[in-house]
TrEMBL record:
Endpoints of the signal sequence: none
Region Disordered, annotated ranges: 409-432
Recorded superkingdom: Bacteria
The protein's name: Relaxase/mobilization nuclease domain-containing protein
Cited Pfam families: Relaxase (PF03432)
Biased composition (Basic residues): 421-432
Domain MobA/VirD2-like nuclease span(s) in chain numbering: 23-151
Length: 432
């Protein structure tokens, strides 16, 4: 179980965010402590606020009085409501907030069911409750709660994080945004690739594709990236997801920076000759395309080809998971370009590896022709039509929401998107 703690100034905004999910039946209130009861058992933001007001009015000098905590068990734990309540109460007690008013919300709108706890960090006398060594104390408490209630240890989960990140996205399941996020936020941290085509080859392993977008937004030239989920036939099976939903690392500027950095890294790397040798060895023994790809997969290398409508191979990319590098065939050498493999797999001209004293070369007739280019296209009409919350009351109450959302394990991207929208609303209002 992982706990993430957020602090801020706008209690109304935090309560509104959680209550909106309740109203949409994507969340429910599991437990309240020192919160005024209601006759029908239903709560409103205004009604919950009244229970916190005495603490906020007594506040002496604490700037960020609002506490927003998320507790995130492993999805496989299948935690019951009763256990969630018990865990939340014990966590708050051990963290020093046991005497504070707080509300426990259970979120169910993504696969990873988790709870949010909203409270304040000043006591009835207006004094701030100590947050010394908060992160360390929180981690220790989580480990003890895991052991006591037989929950999956977060340490064990983190050790398997790489494996879990490499899950193929299932376009038929829920939470497509979360599935895409787990991939696109992870890959640039681990893999070196030098172009958008190489990045897309890597993404294709997880049924994702990215597209560059160029155009004008509010009269200004813009460049960006959108992501789509693919079905088993490689066709788009989702609406576009803007890169901003997944953080800066998934966006256009950071991608360009990553390409530049990767070029420098790969100049110094010994991966290229190692990968080339494995490919050449496989060429000597493989009988066809399927066998070639199968043998290289067993050596930790995926082969991704790009074909036009007639079946002509105009691109080939090698993804080496041993060195975590991605290479277009032509970067490894002209003897491993797309033309070579098109002549082999489409025209029956298998390349022949010739050994010299110190080097190996591949002899093959190559064909040069105009090949389709991967060009960006205009999608900024979509980017400019963002969905927004229409209620003026909600707009005014969440105006200062900002960055108080706790950064939950695996990231709750709906929360981040919500916070980003609130920041944009606030900027637009100031500019009016």
């Amino acid at each position: 179980m992982v706990a993430k703690i957020g602090r801020g100034q706008n209690l109304t905004g935090v309560l509104t965010y959680n209550q909106l999910k309740v109203e949409k039946e994507n969340a429910e209130i599991l437990f309240t402590h020192k919160i005024q009861e209601t006759p029908d058992g239903h709560y409103s933001v205004a009604q919950m606020l009244r229970s916190f007001e005495p603490y906020l009015l007594a506040n002496r000098k604490t700037e960020k009085t609002v506490l927003h905590i998320s507790l995130n068990p492993d999805p496989k734990d299948n935690v019951s409501d009763e256990k969630f309540n018990t865990v939340a109460q014990e966590y708050m007690e051990k963290m020093g907030y046991g005497e504070q008013p707080y509300v426990v919300f259970k979120h169910t709108d993504i696969e990873r069911t988790h709870i949010h706890i909203v409270s304040v960090c000043v006591d009835e006398q207006g004094r701030k409750i100590s947050d010394s060594y908060e992160r360390r104390r929180s981690m220790d408490i989580c480990r003890k709660l895991e052991e006591k209630y037989q929950l999956t240890c977060a340490g064990e989960k983190e050790s398997k994080q790489d494996e879990k990140a490499f899950r193929v996205v299932d376009y038929k399941s829920n939470d497509l945004k979360g599935q895409v996020a787990s991939v696109v936020r992870y890959l640039p941290k681990k893999y070196a690739f030098q172009s958008f085509g190489e990045y897309n080859a890597l993404l294709s392993l997880f049924n994702i594709t990215a597209e560059e977008v160029k155009g004008e937004l509010h009269g200004k030239p813009k460049q960006g990236v959108v992501y789509f989920v693919l079905n088993e036939n490689g066709k788009k099976a989702s609406s576009p997801f803007k890169a901003s939903l997944f953080g800066k690392s998934a966006g256009y500027i950071e991608m360009q920076n990553h390409f530049t950095a990767s070029k420098e890294i790969l100049k110094e790397s010994d991966a290229r000759p190692t990968i080339r040798k494995k490919i050449e060895t496989t060429l000597q023994s493989a009988i066809d395309e399927q066998d070639f790809k199968k043998q290289l997969t067993e050596k930790g290398i995926n082969v991704i080809t790009r074909k036009n409508d007639t079946g002509r191979i105009y691109g080939i990319t090698f993804i080496d998971h041993n060195s975590k590098t991605v290479w277009n065939g032509s970067r490894l050498g002209k003897e491993l370009s797309a033309n070579v493999f098109n002549d082999w797999w489409n025209n029956g001209l298998q390349p022949e590896v010739k050994n010299s004293e110190n080097t190996k070369t591949i002899s093959i007739k190559t064909v040069s022709e105009n090949l389709p280019a991967e060009k960006p296209h205009d999608l900024f009409d979509f980017l400019s039509n963002q969905s927004t919350i229409q209620s003026n009351d909600i707009h005014s109450s969440i105006e200062g929401f900002g960055g108080i959302l706790p950064e939950a394990q695996g990231e709750d991207y709906q929360e981040q998107d919500f916070a980003n929208k609130m920041k944009k609303k606030k900027k637009r209002k100031r500019g009016q």
